[in-house]
Amino acid sequence: MVGLNKIQIIGNIGTDPEMRYTPQGNPVTSFRMATSRNFTTPEGERREETEWFQVTTWNKLAETCNQFLAKGRRAYVEGRLRSSVWEGQDGQKRFRNEIVANTVIFLDRAGGAADEEVSRPVGTEPKGQSQGEVEANDLPF
Q1: Share of the chain above pLDDT 70, in %
Q2: Which of 56, 62, 71, 98 supports an S-S bond with 27, CB 3.0-4.6 Å?
Q3: What is the pTM (predicted TM-score) of this model?
């Protein structure tokens, strides 16, 4: 029987990526990522719940993430969930879930004035630049 281990998240990068190399020379990059959900309690109170994930990428994807991701950026991550259990130096059992990513899509651009122009929604005008009313005859369709 075939199994499936797949996780997909969209959220904000919580730490700057940290790249290192295995003894065999393979690059590996790790970073933390936060996802949030908003909900209303039965008492009518609005709440936000944040879940943190450790993400690990390998090889070319690791190099790309290290180069282009930074704390605060938005990203889509897809991969498999890997769990680890070990005993710490204090004798306590430790547990960690981690996403081993095979796909990372950058959902925003790095900050800057030029990026504001590129990322502004279609049909909106840049701040401080009003072009006035548009006549029906001016429309291209």
Answers
A1: 77
A2: 62
A3: 0.71
